[in-house]
Design brief:
By secondary structure, the chain is of the alpha/beta class. It folds into two domains: about 5-220, Spore Coat Polysaccharide Biosynthesis Protein SpsA, Chain A (Alpha-Beta Complex); about 250-435, Hexapeptide repeat proteins (UDP N-Acetylglucosamine Acyltransferase, domain 1), CATH 2.160.10. It contains eight helices and 35 strands. Bound molecules: uridine-diphosphate-N-acetylglucosamine and calcium ion (CA).
Length: about 450
């Protein structure tokens, strides 16, 4: 069975009050539309067609790396008209599934059930029971429970509007039948639109079989019209991600105070304090412990790594047993070997730090290769940039860099070398020796500090 997916995304999204097209507003760090495209991919769609309207260029650019086919619906004449525009792109498909670009939490498992339940039917619809169905299309059934048709809120009689089973809008149809039904649609209704939902009544009138399935949660079928609804779905989604982490062996101090915008993979017995934000692809090994208020993006933390409060970590690889922070910043290509210590107000960029080395206070290490067992004193700076070019600093195993040293790259500090505090090192410091640059300390005997002269007229 070849499945074509049509995603409707031509709506203007006025209620977002935004210059960004509605379907590009992010949920968990990704455009809503990207979530829907991902669901189609997980379902094994042979082709995904997105029907877009105004702002199309921006939408296409944002999803440039997905293999969608794009179809413009210049005028929004209704959901049926929108699917009709996509039909030429799915002529070689057996079935067509309709999704919505502004219903981001659609669950591939539910769609899979819908497709399975309608395997022997010409049409399958996803319907849901709602305490308050106001605004939705209602599913009208006969006395035996057979679906007859779907009625829009604005077209329904009082009796029809009392029905609590709603049409979610999601449907899967045999492609050949859908062609015929859509071409037969009229806009003779309260909104003057071509309703996709009218295909249900048309199928029944033609004696076709219509299957129906319910979603597991209402959030899966909830559309986003404004930023309040978007925030509700974001929290729902984050809660689920948090529960997945906990089921997988992570302890969260508060599952309501973690945000995952991408993918977080965790080992056993990971402990995460409040307000962690993870972006991109992040991996925590077994026993990783994260303090409060950290931002971690595209990084790999080995087993037993401890990150203390208020760290910002991006594009870093951290070896097992390392201790980071509080208040540390690891930037892209920071590569820390096992058992390293990176302390407060330390920034590390494009640098390797060898096993057991310590960079504990107020330091900038950029474009550097630091060996094992090195101690970098407080306030040390690699002066890696001359305003035009970047240069590397190399520090051998077991070196000891005194506090407040400036290492002017390109420069090499030999293994076991000691650098005196306050030195400016711009030439090679030999292995095993003490190297320092320091003005000699002098004392001026009997020197008097200047005195302020008394203000004229001031009282004695
Ligand atoms: C639609 C259904 C309704 C269902 C509800 C569920 C119809 C006629 N009604 O109503 O039965 O209960 O969804 O949320 O289908 N769109 C286009 N082009 C158009 C019109 C719409 O791409 O010409 C897109 C919109 O961007 C949106 C989706 O289709 O993503 C649904 O359109 P909308 O106008 O919101 O439909 P509803 O009136 O909510
Ligand atoms: Ca409408």
């Amino acid at each position: 069975m070849k499945l074509g997916v049509v995603i409707l995304a031509a709506g203007t999204g006025k209620r977002m009050r935004s210059d960004l097209p509605k379907v590009l507003h992010p949920l968990a760090g990704r455009p809503m539309l990207a979530h829907v495209v991902a669901a189609a991919t997980r379902l094994g769609a042979a082709r995904t067609v997105v029907v877009y309207g105004h702002g199309g260029e921006q939408v296409r650019a944002a999803l440039a790396d997905s293999a969608c086919v794009w179809v413009e619906q210049a005028q929004q004449l209704g959901t049926g008209h929108a699917v009709l525009q996509a039909l030429p792109q799915v002529q070689d498909m057996d079935r067509v599934l309709v999704l919505y670009g502004d219903v981001p939490l659609v669950d591939p498992d539910t769609l899979g059930r819908l497709i399975a339940a309608s395997a022997d039917c010409e049409l399958g619809v996803l319907t849901a029971l709602m305490d308050d169905p106001t605004g939705y299309g209602r599913i009208i059934r006969d006395a035996t429970g057979r679906i007859l048709r779907s009625v829009e809120q604005k077209d329904g009689t009082a009796e029809e509007l009392a029905v609590q089973e709603v049409n979610t809008g999601f449907l899967v149809a045999e492609r050949v039948r859908l062609d015929g039904w859509l071409k037969g649609l009229t806009n003779a209704n309260a909104q003057g639109e071509y309703y996709l939902t009218d295909v249900i009544g048309m199928a029944v009138a033609a004696g076709e079989r219509v299957a129906s399935v319910h979603p597991l949660t209402l959030e899966e079928v909830s559309g986003v019209n404004d930023r309040v609804q978007l925030a509700v779905l974001e929290r729902f989604h984050q809660r689920r991600l948090a529960e997945d982490l906990m089921r997988n062996g992570a302890t969260l101090a508060d599952p309501a105070r973690i945000d995952i915008r991408g993918r977080l993979t965790t080992g056993r017995d990971v402990a995460i304090d409040i307000n962690l934000i993870c972006e991109g692809d992040v991996t925590f090994g077994d026993g990783v412990c994260i303090g409060p208020n950290c931002l971690i993006r595209d990084s790999i933390l080995g087993d037993g790594v401890q990150v203390f409060a208020n760290c910002v970590i991006e594009g870093a690889q951290i070896g097992a047993g390392a201790r980071i922070g509080p208040f540390a910043r690891l930037r892209p290509e920071a590569r820390l070997a096992p058992d390293t210590h990176i302390g407060n107000f330390v920034e590390i960029k494009k640098a390797t730090v060898g096993e057991g080395s310590k960079v504990n206070h107020l330091t900038y290490i950029g474009d550097a290769d630091i060996g094992a067992g090195v101690n970098v004193g407080a306030g040390t700076i690699t002066c890696n940039y001359d305003g035009a070019n970047k240069f590397r600093t190399t520090i051998g195993d077991g070196a000891f860099i005194g506090s407040n040293a400036s290492l002017v790259a390109p420069v090499t500090i030999g293994a076991g070398a000691t650098i005196g505090a306050g030195s400016v090192i711009s030439a090679e410091a030999p292995a095993g020796e003490l190297t320092l640059t320091r003005a000699r300390q002098t004392t001026i005997p009997g020197w008097q500090r200047p005195q302020k002269s008394p203000k004229p007229g001031a009282a004695e």
